[in-house]
Predict the 3D structure of the following.
Amino acid sequence: MVRVSRVSLGGSVCLLSADLVWVALAQPPLPAAGLAWFASAALLGIWLSGLANQLSLTRAHLAVPALVYTLEPGKLMELVGVVVAGGLSDVLDGYVARRWEGTTRLGGGLDPVVDGILFGAVAAGLAGGGALPLWLAAAVVGRYALPALGGAVLLAGGRRPELRHTPLGQASTVLIAVLLGGIALLRGLDRSPMLVVEVAEVAIPVAALATFANLVWANRRSIAGRQTV
């Protein structure tokens, strides 16, 4: 049974408070939708034990500012700040887990999901601003959504998937971060990002397919039904 801990409750309160301060200062468009997302993420966080998981969930909260700032080319520095904060949370959650709390299946599954939420928001913002083809933004979202869906299906079937980043998965995440960051940077500097977009149109789908193949191989025993929860 999952219980609410002081760490999970405190983490959710801190993150939601930061969200509310950001909404008050930034006054983003569609604040009601953003508040609903923040409230949902905070509610989920209450049931996620451990400081490492709270740090991971920070990236889900950062998705809304990332989307807002990516839609506006003039908000380059704000976007850089959001991405840096997301990267810092990614480093810290792994460090805290390894140093003090120990790695868990929940943390291993949560990490790529929140990565997908954050990068999906950046990709959606770039597509909404006309800097990225819509299909490529969908490919970025699918890169993370399909493995999460596959893992959920295996769990629902009583099997035990490998809920963690694979080496190829980590490499594809770095590649996506560099390419989306480069596109956002060039657009923010009022330079054409088309060359980087053309590279991304090839590299991101190839990286996604390689990741899917790697995940299928890593989970071959679970898919075949030889590992159960």
Remarks:
- The chain has one domain: 51-223.
- The two ends are 16 Å apart (CA to CA).
